[in-house]
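Researcher: Can you fold this with 3-methyl-2-oxobutanoic acid in place?
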Amino acid sequence: MLPKELIRFKELGKQITILTAWDSLSSAIVEAAGVDVVLVGDSLAMFVHGHSTTLPVTIEQMLHHTQAVERGFQSKKSHHPLVICDLPFLSYQCGEDKAVEAAGTLLKNSCAAAVKIEGAEPEVIAVIQRLIRMGIPVMGHLGLTPQSVHNIGYRRQAESKLEQEKLIQHAIELENIGCFSLVLEHVPGIFSSKLRNMLKIPVIGIGAGEDCDGQVRVTADLLGLTEKQPPFAKPLINTRKLSIEALKAWIQDKNNHLQNPTKATSQQESDY
Ligand code: KIV
């Protein structure tokens, strides 16, 4: 699927589903679940590498993870979900040439067909225009932009009329210069609903209410892999708790076996 085909989804009223993946295990799972788009998000800096923000992840690491994601797909290449990769902090803030090199490296050496970029300041707009002219599709990202954490924190954005007007201007500009879609993070639902109706490109929400053209989630949040999730990303299952309980039972079973080697081990393992 070409990135710009997501605009057709919006025209047809089909909700777009996007999930993050960071390695072959997670990409196999989200592909099997039937997701439309896989995002190799720079949130992997926090979820996989254990950093406290997304800032430290490098373009080389993003490429490494995108290649692993590609190896996890089980279907034929023509049936893979669309893969979008985040351009990490400092790969596009230092000028157009550096950004073309970073984005080009991702598209040249992995299955990523597009990049996602945060913000719409004049310098970012110039970078996006250049990337699109060079044949690199771009997804925008407005609202809570985690790469600006030191400026805006993790609080909800677009609460005031002024902030909303600025965000609308930015979104229209991103659409006008050719972004094929826009992620809108942690803004009031009523605002996303309004913005969605103003744009032709799909608005993909996260913590932005249900009335969007699609939803994106960090898979680790939905699966409950971490101890705590953001308030707008409620887990569907508590995998962390279930895994710890199952592993504890296994360890207990082994310890019991050591103390009493004649006692049969768990049914499952003795069958193996
Ligand atoms: O990095 C990421 O996972 C993201 C999503 C939160 C949209 O950008």
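Model: Folded with 3-methyl-2-oxobutanoic acid in place. The longest helix spans residues 239-259.
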